[in-house]
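Onboarding guide, step 5: your first structure request.
Type a short instruction followed by the sequence, for example:

Predict the 3D structure of this protein.
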Amino acid sequence: MIELKDVGVWQKAIDSIASFISEGNFRFSEKGLSLRAVDPSQIVLVDFSIEKNAFEKYSIEPAFVGVDLVELNKILARALPKDRLLMDLSESELNVKLEGELSRSFSLPLIDVNEEEIKLPEQRFDAKVDINARILKEALRDAALFGSSVVLRVKGSQLLIEARGSAGTLHTVAKQAKNITIKGNGEVVSKYGLNFLQGIVKNADPEQQVTMQLRSDAPMKISYKIGPALLEFHLAHMLL
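The system replies with structure tokens like these:
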């Protein structure tokens, strides 16, 4: 049995994952809980983990089990703000309990998901941007006015966000400041699908920092925390 007092952490994390991954394997281990999966289009790799000490209770046998994340997300969407989350495994089911003003129990059948271990790509990055999630989300909303893709350009102490479409163009400059830290090795330019990028950061707390690691014409690594949960995404690039 595992117990998490703040159901919102699990709720937001699973919603972020389920935006891309419909089925995946949870690994329950002595260190905590994790999931690593690639979306069907092979554009986004998700790497999620939450350490054992983040739970109020964590007493569960090590296991590697397949779960329908879309259905799990539907269950978690029904959680009330002050609910406690309890989860347990049987031989064939993941049992989810929401305890609050109501006590609700749900059971999801375990499913067979490809058990091949997914390895993280070996990547070298030439730029790193730590940016306030609220600022990044606003810049991406601006980009969505004109395009379905966005060009990220790191030059010196500036992050440039560019979008272009038949309706017009966007050119945004984010300079190093209190909520933005930019480190780069030369000029770095790469292009990404805007819907994917917006989906990745949608559940980042507005005042949380999002870290983007980039290299020209290469996949980007985006990471942030939801409470004690760590979410890392590797997003494939598009041709410029």
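Each response can be followed by summary notes, for example: The radius of gyration is 19 Å.
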